[in-house]
Amino acid sequence: MLSVVVFLPLAVAAVVLAVPALRGRAALGAWIAAASADLVLVAIMWIGYRGGLGYETRLRWIPTLNAGYHVGVDGLSLPLMALTAVLYLLCAIYSLRETTRVRAYAALFLFLETASLGLFAAQDLLLFFVFFDLSIVGMYFVIAGWGHGERARSALKFFLYTFVGSLALLLGFIGLYLGGEPHTFDLVDLTRKPPFAAAPGAAALVLLAVAAGLAVKTPTFPVHTWLPPAHTDAPAAGSAILAGILLKMGTYGFARVAMPVLPGAWQRYAWVVVAVGLVSVLYGALVALAQENLKRLIAYTSVNHMGYIVLALGAAGAAGGATGARELAVTGAVTQMVSHGLVTGALFLLSGVFWDRARAYDLGRYGGVAERAPVFARLTAVAAFASLGLPGLSGFIAEFQIFAGVIGTGLTGAVVAGALAVLGILITAALFLRLLHRVFLGRPGELTPLVSDVRGHELGAIAPLLVLSVLVGVVPRPLLALIEPASAAIVSFLTGR
Amino acid sequence: MSAILVLLPVLPGGSGAFLAVAGRRTRGFAPGAAVAVAAVTLVLAVAAAVTRPEVSVPLFAGLRSGAAIDGLSAVMAVTVAAVTLAVLGYAAGEMRDEESRGRFFGLMLLFAGSMLVTVTAADLALLLMAWEVMGAMSYALIGFWWRAPERVTAADVAFVTTRAGDLGLYLSAGVAVAATGSLGLAGLPDAARPWRDLAAAGIVLAALGKSAQLPFSFWLSRAMAGPSAVSALLHSATMVAAGAYLLLRTQPLLAATGWAAALVSWTGALTALALGAVAVAQRDLKQLLAASTCAQIGFMVLAAGAGAVAGGAAHLVAHAAVKSLLFLGAGAWLAALGTKDMGELHGAARRFPLVGVAFAVGGLALAGLPPFSLWVTKEAVLAVVADESAPLHLVSYAAALLATAYAVKAVVAVWLPADAATRHHTERPGTGRVGLLERLPMPALALVAALFGLVGLPAAFSGWSRLAGGPAHPGPGLAALLLSGVLAVAVALAVRVAMPLVRRRRLAAPGVLREWLLLERGARAVVWRPLVALARALARFDDRVIDGFVGSVPRVGVGLAALTRRRLEKPVDGAVRLVAAGAAGLGALARRPQTGQVHTYFAQVAVALLVLAVVVALVV
User: Which among A408, A422, A443 is the nearest to B178, CB-wise?
Assistant: First the structure.
């Protein structure tokens, strides 16, 4: 079942490319049908999930390396797979009016969907790595082929930067393989018997490689500068997938690989992680405050939001913290991954409306857009408030747990880091209000006459994201009930119980 | 009975969300629906106050969250619901058909609903949620007329400033988890140091921000940019009252730390004094009322610090009625006469006598004049303060006399007859009328403003103290009441005499007071502008240094490649070429004997044989 979920989009992509009749709207129809079917399947998986590692499949793949085709889902991967299925479907709906090389576009996104789902399902490091790299390749073509502005340059920068990151990751994975006894790439085996238990120096080096690779993808300060140009020049749906799903691969990797497989090293260097997270939070928010380009602004808020996740995972690793609080922090981090996917996905799709109408992202050239586009303004206002962490929306549930968990560990360093990180939500509040003020409220600007209200396919893609954000914000229990056992498991790996 | 407690905020909140989201279609029935919902909410609040329900649900792993009604929250819930009903009734009359009424009434109901959650929340998570939603709703309501940039700026300032305080609650929530393993408010006073102190610090910060106490007071001046009904609700039973309520609720925690109680007391007293002076200096009626709100909330904050919970709660309720009444009056005149400048409002009360009388009752109550409500409730606070600290008592007494001055100033301004210099419609064209719906809530509010002082009667006050909770104190003493009454009357008379003089001589108050102690300018200069400068500097740093470094990596790579080509590739290639050329030369040399002519081959063989013979001869 899980393999069907993962490879269904790829199969449909092959069909779309192979059957010449699937052109234009037919290709989009096939895309939407595949994405819908996948969403239904993921929903069924969610309903049928009974704890532990569910829907497991383990096949021999490269026996000489002890690398297998090993997939399965738990409370950590299932929410992200659900997010993936939702976001790809909505991006398909958003792309209904796409006219440029539609077949290739649909096939590429379907290919990316398989890569994303496969990564979140992978229980084998080599498999994880393959999907990790395929996502980079796919996104490169999305930006280079359907982007705008300096798309070739941005795409190349994105590719080279994240590819170098993935090489570091590969190096780290090879290190884990060599450290495992017996040598294996299997995540479950490695988690059960963590490598380098007696060799802290080697463990630190391997953690460095793994963390560096994941940090580029997340991205954290200071390896984040590929993100703004990639977002600015990507098509709206590409940006939404990049921010909503691809960035999660980094933070997911921390929780899936780095923490359970290298628990000792993670605990020893937890404070470095906390510091990187804290700097990302404050730096991302401040730099976002100074941006004049809408997409760059949202890109930097992603650095800020991902920073909370890194901070929480770091604080959860710090030795001596209260167990309940550490679990709360991890749950908050996973919730933040889902929430950021929903909200930032919506924000990037919304910013696509500006490009579609007026070919510009400059904040200063708009103003009073709410007059001409009231629905667009309301949607953006909800997305902005969700992003600044207003209660009743998903961001608050995530960030509150992160703050309460980080501070709640009771460690002095974590209390200080948490208290400083809280400043991030004040800065994001200021910058989003400034955004709403300059673009949507007040007097009309130069490009305002060009902006018409959202159309059906835009509304159909964006509104569900915001509805889901509200649902998570108001009724968080079902999601949290899924995540909490996984968080407890991660913390138990760290504390060695 | 917990359904009542769930329904109490969900009914206004849910219907408000519907009205706000549904857009234009609800324009027609929004006012009626909102008033009906507010009426039902009031019934629910009373029912909840009687039945005292409790509700609790698991929120996060191992952390429950919930709401409960005790005496203090029962009082608050009824107050909030009643004032909301009164204000929405007024707004149903004032908000014209061309306004986005669905959005307005929807946001107002959401605003009230979130305040109802705030006052019933039993833990920090639920409290923080409602607290922040209330802030966001105030943003949307202050910036309701969003086409005007300065109104949007006012909304921005209000939200960012109050959220700066809200950060304290995030800190407190984390500290509560660390110290008690729960988010409950009740366990905090028993937490160990330094957790207790940190939790108290966070709560105090949040409360002072929300209640517009020093140094946050400036956002309330800006909050006047919204419609009058928003001011009436925001200044009385919601938003600013939430901070005072939270401090009254957490009084045991403040007392347990010691320093927090003193800090809160002094902040409240100094706000009452300083913002009282600011209020006296205002010309704009709504600005005067706004500054007076800060000052009056200061008394409640002082009460929380001094442990006078019953007095503070009584003051809160009475002030809610008084202030919503005054803002409704000011709003009615602004709509009818097109001005809120007290210099131009002469004759307003005589032209609209019902509004004028109601406003006078509210104003005289605000002045602390006997026999109106605030005279008694304020004394209930000051009586406790007098036992605590003499300097604090002195400052708050001075603040009380300033209250008499600003309130009487407002009442006299509107009751003076119109003269030749009075100009209406200075801000907008007035409608010249005050409708029935606008007038309807005023007598009811005036009744409470006049009579709520009865709570100070000895028999009533002991009951009230049991209801509100907190340390037991005797009610206001008769002698102290008489003294403060006499002093208030004296100040009122002095103001009445002085006002025409001030007007004739064109005396202006110092700019510092007119400009709200320059607090906003200070906040912009000390916090906002450095922050933006830092943000810009970091953005440049990001582009030039961090991304510059990344960009330099490929440049260095390309440069190294060029260097390799010049310095390494060429010599290596040269050597290769040299070898090739040598081989070619040798080849050419070797080709020369290959002539294809038999006689030359014979000659070559002959020479070779000769050489061979010589070699053999020499070797052998």
Answer: A408
Residue A497 in this model has a pLDDT that exceeds 60: no
Query: In chain B, how many domains are there?
Result: 2
A465 token code pair? 């994201």
- B454 and B539 part of one domain: no
On chain A, the residues whose CB falls within 8 A of the CB of B544 are none
Does B458 share its domain with B541? no
pLDDT in tens, A189-225: 999 989 988 889 999 999 999 999 999 999 999 999 9
Task: Name which of A225, A407, A433 is nearest B550 (Cβ-Cβ).
Answer: A225
Cβ of residue B174 closer than 8 Å to a chain A Cβ: yes
Give the residue from B463, B496, B514 where a domain finishes: B514
Q: Where are the domains of chain A?
A: 269-497
Which residue in B21, B138, B542, B544 has the most chain A C-beta atoms within 10 A of its own C-beta, making it the best mutation to test that interface?
B542
On whether residue B617 sits in a domain, the answer given is no
Q: Can you give the pTM of this predicted structure?
A: 0.93
With CB atoms and an 8 Å threshold, state whether A283 touches B538: yes
Q: In angstroms, what separates the C-alpha of B156 from chain A's closest C-alpha?
A: 6
Q: Is the pLDDT of residue B1 over 70?
A: no
Half-sphere exposure of B468 (CA within 13 A, CB side): 30
For range A297-306, the mean pLDDT? 96
Closest residue, chain A, to B151 (C-alpha): A442
Pair B369, B391 in one domain: yes
Q: What's the complex ipTM?
A: 0.94
Same domain? B441 vs B563: no
Residue B449 lies inside a defined structural domain of this protein: yes
CA gap A403, B610 in Å, rounded: 103
HSE value, Cβ hemisphere, 13 Å, CA-based, for B410? 38
Q: Give B60's strand partners.
A: B63
Decide if B536 touches A, using CB distance below 8 A: yes
**B583 and B436 inside one domain:** no
Q: How many CB atoms lie within 10 A of CB A167?
A: 15
Final residue before a domain boundary, out of B514, B535, B553: B514
For residue A429, which residues of chain B lie inside 8 Å, CB to CB? 159-160, 163
* 3-state class (DSSP) for residue A224: coil
Residue of chain B whose Cα is closest to the Cα of A481: B61
**B535 and B468 co-located in one domain:** no
B409 is in which domain, residue-wise? Answer: 2-419+432-514
Percentages helix, strand, coil for chain A (3-state, rounded to 5) are: 75, 5, 20
B181 interfacial to chain A (CB closer than 8 Å): yes
Q: Report yes or no on B620 lying in a domain.
A: no
What's the rounded Cα separation, in Å, for the pair B242 and B246?
A: 6
Interval A461-493: pLDDT, tens: 999 999 999 999 999 999 999 999 999 999 999
- Is A286 in contact with B531 (Cβ distance < 8 A)? yes
* B412 Cβ contact partners less than 8 Å away, ≥ 6 residues apart: B495, B496, B499
Answer yes or no: do B136 and A426 touch at CB < 8 A. no
Residue B164 lies in a domain: yes
**Residue in B553, B560, B538 with CA at minimum distance from that of residue A157:** B553
Which residue is it, tokens 């690398």? A67
Asked if the Cβ–Cβ distance from B21 to A322 is below 8 Å, we say no
A vs B: CB pairs below 8 A = 154
Query: Encoding tokens for residue B521?
Result: 């300018």
Q: Which residues of B touch A224 (CB under 8 A)?
A: 546
Which chain B residue has its CA at the smallest distance from A479's CA?
B60
Same domain, residue pair B467 and B594: no
Contacts of A337 (CB under 8 A, 6+ apart): A79, A80, A83, A248, A251, A252, A309
Q: Do B177 and A325 touch (CB under 8 A)?
A: yes
In this structure, are B535 and B507 located in the same domain? no
Q: With contacts defined as CB-CB under 8 Å, which chain B residues touch A396?
A: 129, 132
Q: What is the mean pLDDT of chain A?
A: 94
Q: What single string gives the DSSP state of each residue in A123-140?
A: -BHHHHHHHHHHHHHHHH
